[in-house]
Amino acid sequence: MAKKLRVGILFGGRSGEHEVSLLSAASILKAIDRKKFDVVPIGITKEGRWLASSDANSLLEGNNGAPSRKLRAGDPEATPGAKLLHEGIPTLLAPVPGPQGPEGKAIDVVFPVLHGTFGEDGTIQGLFELAGIAYVGSGVLGSSAGMDKDAMKRLFAQAGLPIVKHVTILRSEWEASPRKATARIEAALKYPLFVKPANLGSSVGISKAHDRKELGPALDEAAKYDRKLVIEQGVGGKKSPARELEVGVLGNDNPKASVVGEIIPGKEFYDYEAKYLSEGSVPVIPAKITAAEAKQIREMAVAAFLACDLAGLARVDFLMEPDGKRRIYLNEVNTLPGFTQISMYPKLWEATGISYTDLITRLIELGVERHREKNRNVYSRE
């Protein structure tokens, strides 16, 4: 009988997408194949404390990581600022015999379900690389590129992929001279505009500016979340907005694309509220597009995945002009998309023929495969 892999499901974190991460993790923990995997829940509170086992489950239940048992003097958890999980990160980094779970057993692979900052941007991936731990998803470079919308667009352009017109400005530039920054934006782009923090996900901090009056507040909002601000020219018009199409990509060096889906937002655009809070947005899978358009979008999705050196999984988002030429623009890649059973990425693969549980299994296998491939590298001349 094959040894069961010990999988750490890592969730929570310090980002603005903490709550989304909890939803994704709870869904994975419920659906993961327990016949194949021993599962260790690992939580990170909004303050950055690492939690394991029952304390991690407490975080999932909305208790913000409050210890599940009464603390006694001398317990590491009772010490202000102490980290759980056997003192947290230092133990997770133990190179021999491996990262230790709460029972002192080695974790074979980590499934990070950390959306946004400090989880999807290459930082936690760097931690895993230093520790020599197998993990699900893209590496440091791919995660960083997939998180930074400015760097991402540069890679897309280098690969010859069609993207919308955009301008990137720094927060310091906007704060030092709002008039000059506004003039620069308006000289390059036409309203309506989408204003985004360069490094954030789940549409947090994104606003649509229809005119100059709305541009300033939109830039102020985005500037709360990042030092780089990306301003994109809208596709389509108010009466005929752009169609929002999405594809799931799965694999490492030879990735495959799912069927194409479409999101019909319940609001003017697919912002955080439309994604997670309101019930008006409607997913359509497969999208009602031609076979030629679907083929083009799937090929572009794989090309975007490779351009950013991604691995494991990604949801790739597109914009299509609603009328006329129906031109298709690559919008962005999401290296750790929402992962509840009703999230778009799993639903796209379910429509393609891979169940939710099987998708989790395949992603863990891909993480192990990528780690094995990386271990072929030689880091010393001796």
From TrEMBL:
Cofactor: Mn(2+); Mg(2+)
Domain ATP-grasp positions: 153-365
Ligand binding (Mg(2+) 2): 332, 334
Domain of life where this protein originates: Bacteria
MF terms in GO: ATP binding; D-alanine-D-alanine ligase activity; metal ion binding
An annotated GO BP: cell wall organization
One GO cellular component term: cytosol
Residues engaged in binding ATP: 149, 194-196, 202-203, 232-244, 331-332
Pathway, per record: Cell wall biogenesis; peptidoglycan biosynthesis; Glycan biosynthesis
Positions annotated as active site in the UniProt record: 17, 202, 343
Enzyme kind, highest EC tier: ligase
Binding site for Mg(2+) 1: 317, 332
Keywords assigned: ATP-binding, Cell shape, Cell wall biogenesis/degradation, Cytoplasm, Ligase, Magnesium, Manganese, Metal-binding, Nucleotide-binding, Peptidoglycan synthesis
Catalytic activity, reaction form: 2 D-alanine + ATP = D-alanyl-D-alanine + ADP + phosphate + H(+)
Record's subcellular location: Cytoplasm
Record function comment: Cell wall formation.
HAMAP family: Dala_Dala_lig
Protein name: D-alanine--D-alanine ligase
Source organism per UniProt: Telmatobacter sp. DSM 110680
Gene of this entry: ddl
